[in-house]
Amino acid sequence: MSTATATRPDLPVTGGPGRVARPSRPSAGQVLFWSAAVAVPLLFLGVFFAWPVVVMVGRGFVTDGHLDLSAFAEVFSRPRTWRIVGLTLAQASIATALSVLLGLPGAYVLHRRRFRGRSVVRALVTVPFVLPTVVVGVAFRSLLVDGGPLGFLHLDGTFAAIVSALVFFNYAVVVRAVGGLWERLDPRAAQAARALGASPWRAFRTVTLPALTPAIASAASLTFLFCATAFGTVLVLGGLQFGTIETEIWIQTTQFLDLRAAAVLSVVQLVVVAGVLVVAGRARSRQERALALGAPSQTVRALTLRRPAGRPRGDGHAPALAAAAVTAVVVALLALPLVNLVVRSLRVGDRWGLDHYTALGTTGGALTVTVWQATLNSLRVAVDATVLALVVGGLVALVVSRRPRRTAGRRAVAGLDALFMLPLGVSAVTVGFGFLLSMHHPFGLDVDLRTSPVLVPIAQAVVAVPLVVRTVLPVLRAIDPRLREAAATLGAGPGRVLRTVDLTIAARSVGLAVGFAFAASLGEFGATSFLARPDRPTLPVVIFRLIGRPGADTYGMALAASVVLAVLTAGIVAACERLRAAGAGGEW
Fold first, then answer.
1. End-to-end CA distance of the chain
2. For the chain, which residues score pLDDT lower than 70?
3. What per-residue confidence (pLDDT) applies to 26?
4. b vs e for 17-27, b when ≥16 Cβ sit within 10 Å of the residue's Cβ?
5. pLDDT tens digits, one per residue of 214-243
6. Which fold has domain 25-62+353-588?
7. How confident is the model at residue 391, as a pLDDT?
C-alpha cells in the first residue's frame, strides 16, 4: 500500500519489496506524446480560431498600415451602441435569473427524486439546449404570431419574447449542472437539520443551498454567457429593434460593411466573455472540490416521490410537491413551442396535410438545393466536425485532467482549460467573417481555402471542442490515481495504462461528447452562414433563407424543415441521455 501511495499517478513505479517506489523518468515516447497532446490542440486553436479573430479585429483597427484606436471613441459615441450593449446585458441578466429560479425545482425533481418516465422528461428538457438557435426562433415565432396559440398576447417581436426564448434555450443548463451535484449530495446533513427542528425551507436554505452554491454559480455564469452571445434566436425574434452585441456584429459586417464598428464590438464581447469565463472557472473549481464525481455512496438512499412511512403529511412533503408542480408547468411550457411547431407545419391553409413536407424535395425561390440535400450535407459536415472536435477536445481533456505538483504546472493546465472555453463566447460571426479575411493564401501558402468545403466543418469543430472538453474532463479528473499506479506496478506501460484505465473509464463520456458535438455542429449557424457555399448549404442556413422569403407556403416549408432538424437533434439527445443513464458523466 505504501508503494501505491508514494507514486505519481501518471508514471510507472520502480523499486522492490520494502523500498519506497520512486517515479521513473519519463521516456522519450512519453515526452513526445504529451508534447503532441498539447501542441496539436494549440495549433488548431491558433490557426482556426485566434488567427481569424485577430485578422477580423485587426482590419478594424489598422488604417494605412498604422494602428488606429479612434474607432472606440467613434463607436461608443453612437447612442445605438449603448442601446445594444444595454439590451445585451438586460436580456442576459433577466434570462439568467429566470433560468436559475425555474431550474432549481427542476434540478431537484429530475435528479433527486425517482419516478417513472424520469429519463424521458430529462431528455425532453435537454432538447431545447441542443436545438439550433434558428429552430428555436422559428418555434417561438409560430407560437406568438397572430393566429398562433399565444398570438393574443401580442408578444411577437418584443423584448419579453426574446427573454422567454433564452430561458427556453438555457433551462437545461441549470437543471443539469445543479442536478448533477444535487443527486450526489449526502442527504444526512439536511436530515440532521430536520431532526433538530428546522423546517424544510430552513434546512434547504442553511444546509443544501450553500452546498449547491458552486454549481449554481457555474450554471449561472454559463447561462449568462450563452444568453449574451445568442445569435440565431435573437436575430429571428428581435429583428433590427432588439438585438445583442452578437447580432449587431453581424449587421455591421454584412449590411453596413463597417468593420471598424464590428471590431470594436468584438473586443467588447471578448472582454465580457473573458470575465464570465473567469467566474465560471472559479465556480467550477469549487464545484469539483465539493463533488466526489464517482458513484454515489451506497449509504445514500434513493429518494422517491412517495411519502415516507410514518411521516405526517405536509412535514417536508409540501416543498417536494411545490417543486414537482413548478417543474411540471415548466416542462409543459417547454413542450408547447415544439408541439406547436409540428402542428403548424401540418397546417396547409384551412386543412391538414403533408404538403409542406412534400415541398422539401423541391427547389426554386430561396433554394438552390432541396431541403433533403441540405440535410444530407449537414449530416456529412457534422460528422467531419465531430471527428475533429473529438480529437482536439479529447487531447485537451486528457492534458487538463492531469494535476501537476508544481504551482506553475497547475496554472498552465488551468490556463489551457480556460483558453479552449473562449470559442463558446467569442462571436461566431467574428470567427466566420475572420475565416473569409484570413484564409485567402493563409500564411503565404499558395491556396485559397475560402472556396474549400473544409472550412465549414472546421468552424463547427471550433464551436464543438469546448462541449467535448466539458463532457469528458470531469470523468477523467474523477479517476482514482491509484488505479493508474496499480496498473503500472503490474507492469503496464504508460500507453497501456492510458488505454486500459483512462480510456476504458471515460468511454461512455466520450460517446456522450460525440452526441453533443454532433448536435451542436448540426445546428451551428453563425459562422456557417458566412462559409457555406451556395450549392452546399446546411439545413440551418436553408431554414433562415426560407424565413426571409414572403409567402405562406415558404413559411410552411421553413416550419417543416425546422421539424426535421428538431427531430434529428432530439434523437441525438435521446441517445445521449441513455448513455448518461448508463453511467456517463460530465457537466451536461
1. 36
2. 1-26, 239-240, 280-317, 365-366, 425, 573, 576-588
3. 67
4. eeeebebbeee
5. 778 878 888 888 888 888 788 888 766 787
6. MetI-like fold (1.10.3720)
7. 93
What single-letter DSSP state applies at residue 301? P
For CATH 1.10.3720.10, the residue range(s) in the chain are 25-62+353-588, 69-295+328-345
SS3 (DSSP) at 300: coil
pTM: 0.75
Rounded distance between C-alpha atoms, residue 475 and residue 505, angstroms: 8
Lookup result for grid cell 461566431: 428
- Separation between Cα atoms, residue 114 and residue 108, nearest integer Å: 10
Class of domain 69-295+328-345: mainly alpha
Q: Name every residue whose Cβ is closer than 8 Å to that of residue 250 and which is 6 or more positions away in sequence.
A: 231, 235, 429, 526
Exposure string over 85-114, b if 16+ CB within 10 A, otherwise e: bebbbebbebbbebbbebbbbbbbbbbbbe
The percent of residues above 70 in pLDDT, for the chain, comes to: 85
For cell 452562414, what's the residue? 529
Provide the phi-psi class of 441: left if phi over 0, else alpha when psi is between -120 and 50, else beta.
Answer: left
Q: What is d(CA 224, CA 164) in angstroms, rounded to the nearest whole number? A: 14
247 touches 137 (CB < 8 A) = no
Residue with cell 520502480: 14
The whole-angstrom separation of Cα 61 and Cα 263 is 7
- For residue 337, the SS3 value is helix
303: β partners: 113
